[in-house]
Specification:
It contains two helices and two strands, in the order E-E-H-H. By secondary structure, it is α+β, with helices and mostly antiparallel strands. The structure holds iron/sulfur cluster (SF4).
């Protein structure tokens, strides 16, 4: 689970758990490109492609990945996952 930070940016119309951390400076990706921002999912399932990121940007009510309702908080979601794996 990712802890929310005041500096993380939210997007109207996106999943309420989608966050971006805009990076300042000259950090580079492993491919040598300039890093503009990092993407987080507060439930711990970050998008790994632009297609997945687009899906997060449109998922206002449910997670596109596992259909979990957004009314379930990250803490409740983590507890559910732990009880399923026990
Ligand atoms: S993976 Fe699901 S819960 Fe996480 S940011 Fe995307 S839509 Fe939201």
């Amino acid at each position: 689970m990712i802890r929310d930070e005041a500096r993380f940016r939210r997007h109207k119309g996106a999943c309420p758990y989608y966050r971006e951390n805009w990076v300042q400076g000259d950090e580079k990706t492993p491919q040598g490109e300039i890093l503009l921002y990092e993407v987080y999912c507060l439930k711990g399932w970050p998008p790994t492609s632009t297609g997945e990121q687009d899906a997060c940007m449109c998922a206002t009510r449910r997670c596109w990945r596992n259909n979990e309702d957004h009314r379930i908080t990250p803490e409740e979601s983590a507890a559910l996952s732990a009880s399923r794996s026990a």
